[in-house]
UniProtKB/TrEMBL annotation:
InterPro entries, per the entry: UPF0229, vWFA_dom_sf
One Pfam family of this chain: DUF444
Compositional bias annotation for Acidic residues: 80-90
Biased composition, class Gly residues, residue ranges: 56-66
Organism for this UniProt entry: Halocalculus aciditolerans
Low complexity: bias regions: 67-78
Protein name (record): YeaH/YhbH family protein
The organism's taxonomic lineage, starting at the top: Archaea, Methanobacteriati, Methanobacteriota, Stenosarchaea group, Halobacteria
Sequence segments annotated as region (Disordered): 51-96
Domain of life: Archaea
């Protein structure tokens, strides 16, 4: 095993010893942005320790080689003074397992048993795929021989018939060319009068009255099935025509880009204390990471609101606090305007996540928010109600009453950090 194998093994050990994903989301330091650093115990790579210059030879102390039985020296005092050093009172040395959003999404899928497969909406290019389509023209090198043969074979079988059976009707007493031709047409046999004339000329006189009537002939004789005739006589030549030719060409495949916009809405009114803000961050941040890892392009819109709503940067989103009241519909009005102007539903997957303590102004939930949620096309609408130590308001309940039967609306409640992962699972499993 070489050094490269050792390094790979240490990376594997680091991944195995990273903090449990559920525990990290619930209690860990989430950081800011898309840098995902999950704590692990430090694993030091082995290295050689070289002796400093002028320190003597191997096993050699001061004064040269000691004699047998001669003491090699007394214990020397350490750097400390001996007080307070027994247990080690400094900070531990911790490392981090760095995970990108794609790895995080995969790990969360494994943790929660999810398998979200985003759909692309915007065609970014067209590429040539496998040679699965056919056309009537093309270079000879792409001639589909199998297709050509099948076309010829279908034509052969369409006009194929049991010639012996068709000609046998001439052995009926009194049947001539005209009557035989009418009988053949009635039985869908593709023969002509000229064909019967040729067969009648070749038929000996002694065989022309073998059957007293056509009914008697049909009672005794029957056409041999085509598969039996092919086994008996062989397939024979298959007629090929130029208009049977088909040429293979590559199918044109559209490559779509999986693009998503996530609108995060947060109540910043006076009732939203630090604990509620922290719970919202613990739900929204992993959701942002997850969707970033699932989509090719991910953009985020952050909207804060009390009675009015305004757009903010992510860095300020989780820390804002206002002393005003609450009107949740103002945030949805702004979200609708932003989405319509910049993120059309035909081109973007859209998620609208809102969070608060359930408090809202009188009748705003029923009269304004619910209709706005119905009007905004989105993969998923979610409302996260933070209720640490209290029952909270009734906004979530009113959304559930009005939209709970829709498959793109999720309402979840978070009373403590222990509820965070369950809330994330509720939201993502609703989308799935």
């Amino acid at each position: 095993m070489g050094l490269r194998d050792d390094l790979e093994r240490y990376r594997e050990v680091g991944e195995e010893r990273r903090e449990d994903l559920r525990a990290f989301i619930t209690h860990g330091e989430l950081g800011n942005g898309t840098d995902i650093q999950i704590p692990i115990k430090r694993i030091d790579l082995p290295e050689f320790s070289y002796q400093k210059p002028a320190m003597g030879g191997v096993g050699q102390g001061e004064g040269g080689q000691p004699d047998v039985g001669q003491p090699v020296g007394q214990p020397q005092p350490g750097d400390g003074d001996g007080e307070g050093d027994e247990a080690g009172d400094g900070e531990g040395d911790h490392g981090y397992y760095e995970m990108n959003p794609e790895e995080f999404a995969e790990a969360l899928d494994d943790e929660l048993g999810l398998d979200l497969e985003p759909k692309g909406k915007t065609v970014v290019e067209e590429v040539e795929g496998d040679f699965t389509d056919v056309a009537r023209t093309g270079p000879r090198s792409t001639l589909d021989v199998d297709s050509l043969f099948k076309q010829g074979l279908k034509r052969k079988l369409a006009v194929d018939f049991d010639e012996a059976y068709a000609a046998g009707v001439l052995r009926v007493s009194g049947v001539g060319v005209d009557e035989a031709f009418r009988w053949a047409r009635a039985n869908h046999l593709p023969v002509s009068r000229a064909w019967y004339e040729t067969r009648l000329d070749a038929l000996p006189e002694s065989e022309r009255d073998e059957y007293p009537s056509i009914e008697a002939y049909e009672a005794v004789e029957a056409p041999t099935p085509v598969n039996a005739r092919i086994r008996r006589d062989g397939l024979g030549p298959v007629p090929l025509r130029r208009d049977d030719e088909r040429y293979r060409y590559p199918a044109v495949e559209e490559v779509t880009e999986k693009s998503v916009v996530v609108v995060n809405i947060r109540d910043v009114s006076g009732s939203m204390g630090e604990e509620k803000r922290d719970l919202i961050e613990r739900v929204f941040t992993p959701l942002d990471w997850y969707l970033t890892g699932k989509y090719d392009t991910a953009e985020f819109v952050y909207i804060a609101h009390d009675v009015e709503a305004w757009s903010v940067e992510r860095e300020a989103f989780f820390g804002i606090k206002s002393g005003g009241g609450t009107r949740i519909s103002s945030a949805y009005e702004l979200a609708a305007a932003v989405l319509d102007e910049h993120y059309p539903w035909s081109e973007w997957n859209r998620y609208v996540f809102a969070a608060g303590d359930g408090e809202n102004s009188h009748n705003d939930s029923e009269d304004r928010v619910v209709p706005l949620m119905e009007a905004i096309d989105a993969n998923l609408h979610a409302y996260v109600e933070t209720t640490p130590g209290s029952m909270g308001g009734r906004h979530g309940e009113r959304v559930e009453d009005a939209l709970g039967d829709r498959d793109n609306v999720a309402v979840t409640r978070v009373g403590s950090a222990d509820d965070v992962v369950d809330a994330i699972e509720t939201i993502l499993s609703t989308e799935q």
